[in-house]
Amino acid sequence: MATEVIVMIIVWALVIGLSLLIEFLTCTFTSVWFAIGGFVAIIIAPFGVYWPWQVLVFFCTSFLFLLSMRPLVKKFIKTKTTPTNLDMQIGKQFKLLEDIKEGRSQIKIHDIIWTVSCEDNLKKGDTVEVQGMEGNKYIVGKPTPINTDINNNININKNGGTKK
Question: Nearest-5° angle of CA 107, CA 109, CA 110?
Fold first, then answer.
């Protein structure tokens, strides 16, 4: 084999290895397609295909697989979403630790004091409900009114969820 062919086989082997390593570390289903492109390039390298054509085949194959297969794979592979502190606190109620001043106050969640933003004029000790998060502070407001059905046994909040 010519030296150029051996060099290109080594280059494509490195591209495949690096692409698979990046895919293993990121799990984004992006780099794996470049590994497939490298595999196709390593197959044509021993046939004496000029290196610029190998590079062209590599990029065309990689992008063809990336654009056609990645959306299909993403549909079938479900990634687990980990609930954040925000997700766990929305809808929960807490007591204000101080009066609302300039739209800000504090609440205590699991022994951690959080800054809150609130448009309502509330006092220390008033109950507030977490509505969202902006940056590192919670957005709170007056608790959501709870509607009771005729039998007084199921409460329905404004988001359609039920609380017993």
Answer: 145
Query: Tens digits of per-residue pLDDT, 114-163?
Result: 899 998 888 999 999 988 888 788 899 888 776 434 444 444 444 444 44
Q: Is the pTM of the predicted complex or chain greater than 0.85?
A: no
What's CA 25's distance to the chain center, in Å? 15
Burial letters for 108-133: b for 16+ Cβ neighbours within 10 Å, e otherwise? Answer: eeeeeebebbbeeebeeebebbbbeb
Assigned fold of 81-142: OB fold (Dihydrolipoamide Acetyltransferase, E2P) (2.40.50)
Domain ranges of the chain: 3-76, 81-142
